[in-house]
Design brief:
The complex is a heterodimer of chains A (66) and B (309). Chain A has 66 residues and is mainly beta. Chain A is built from 1 helix and 7 strands. Chain B is an alpha/beta fold and 309 residues long. Chain B has 2 domains: 228 residues, 3-Layer(aba) Sandwich (Rossmann fold); 40 residues, no CATH class.
Chain lengths: 66, 309
């Protein structure tokens, strides 16, 4: 399956057929710092993804002076 | 995973609250948190004219959306910072948001108003790019709000922003800055009232809200932000939060409940008008005029940093 990462934009191929939490763990992403998006839906850590899925992992952190 | 409220299928898990929510209940949860912040802190009333500082990002557009949905009279202010395509795209998103909702949109171009843009300021001044950007935005927000007769200026600072800022200020024991870190700064002569209605919500919550509401926000990060100190503090807080959910809320909301009053009492500053622009300052010239003089090579307000506020 395809995983689209942002900032900078890039794409990874990973194995599907497992939970979102396992994919985040494999690519070293803290689940509390990203939205996991499939089509127009948000996925939780427990949701399962399939080999034919495309998911976007979108960071929620933003910086700059306050 | 099931929604805590309706037992429907959950779309987001909030470990800090030990809860998950479906789409509809989550949107309601966010609006309730903003409503509670407004009420608890006496931020504003429905009769007030609110100016929301918008960047085109998830936080400020989520804030503007919530305020409009709650029936407040909220206009948006966008400052054109001159950061190339990034600024162009951000401004377009903010303007499109306003047009879709029929909300008032105020655009101010920093270069036109002040004679410099942020990339230039970052190269020529003594402040870091993020520091001078924050200074310029705060200055413009205040000026535009006062000149436009708005009752209050609202910014999209969230719980992660506030916790990271408090961490940085505490690590350096910048007690004057800590004393001013509050969700409400009441109006003083020359200063409009400033509020942060998202201070009870994490970045995950504001991002999820924007996504679920279909808000087209700028996902890309500012190209000038690399190496920013605030991001490092956020990463540190996220590390703590990952093993102890609720740490950020305990740190910042605990500060508000138990420590803020002590710092405020210790730092009551005497303010007078800046000799250059008239805005309040503790010295002869305000920080914005001193930074601008340095960037433009003017001598008028070039007081060494340590000798004026």
């Amino acid at each position: 399956m395809k995983v689209r990462l942002r900032n900078p934009d890039r794409e990874l191929d990973v194995a599907g057929g497992r939970r979102v939490s396992e994919i985040l763990s494999e690519i070293g992403v803290n689940p509390d710092t990203v939205l996991v998006i499939r089509d127009r839906d948000l996925l939780t850590r427990e949701d399962r993804v399939n080999d034919q899925d495309l998911i976007e992992i979108r960071p929620v952190i933003s910086g700059g002076a306050t | 995973m099931r929604c805590r409220r309706c037992r429907g299928s959950a779309v987001i898990e909030l470990r800090r609250h030990n809860a998950a929510f479906c789409r509809e209940c989550f949107v309601n949860h966010v609006r309730e948190q903003v409503w509670r912040a407004i009420a608890d802190q006496g931020m504003f009333a429905h009769r007030d004219r609110i100016l929301v500082a918008v960047s085109g990002g998830k936080d400020s557009l989520a804030l503007w959306d919530v305020l409009l949905e709650l029936g407040y009279r909220a206009s948006g202010l966008y400052i054109g910072l001159g950061i190339g395509e990034y600024s162009a795209r951000s401004g377009e998103r903010a303007r499109a948001f306003a047009e879709e909702r029929g909300a008032e949109f105020v655009f101010v171009d920093l270069l036109q108003e002040s004679g410099f843009d942020i990339p230039t300021a970052g190269k020529k001044g003594s402040r870091s790019t993020c520091s001078v950007c924050g200074l310029a935005k705060r200055y413009m927000f205040n000026r535009v709000a006062l000149e436009g007769g708005y009752d209050v200026l609202a910014t999209g600072h969230n719980l992660d922003d506030e916790a990271a800022t408090l961490l940085g200020n505490t690590l350096r024991w910048q007690t004057e800055y800590i004393a001013r870190q509050h969700p409400v700064l009441f109006a003083e002569p020359g200063f409009v009232k400033k509020v942060k209605p998202l201070y009870r919500l994490s970045e995950l919550e504001t991002a999820a809200y924007s996504f679920l509401r279909g808000i087209d926000y700028v996902v890309e990060e500012c190209p000038l932000v690399a190496g920013n100190t605030q991001l490092r503090y956020k990463e540190a807080m996220n590390l703590l939060e990952s093993t102890s959910p609720g740490t950020k809320a305990q740190f910042f909301l605990g500060y508000l409940e138990r420590a803020a009053a002590l710092f405020e009492e210790a730092h009551r500053a005497e303010l007078g008008p800046c000799e250059q622009c008239g805005q309040p300052t503790t010295g002869r010239f305000c920080a914005f005029c001193r930074a601008r003089a340095q960037i433009r090579g003017d001598d008028t307000a070039r007081v060494p940093e340590g000798r004026a506020s």
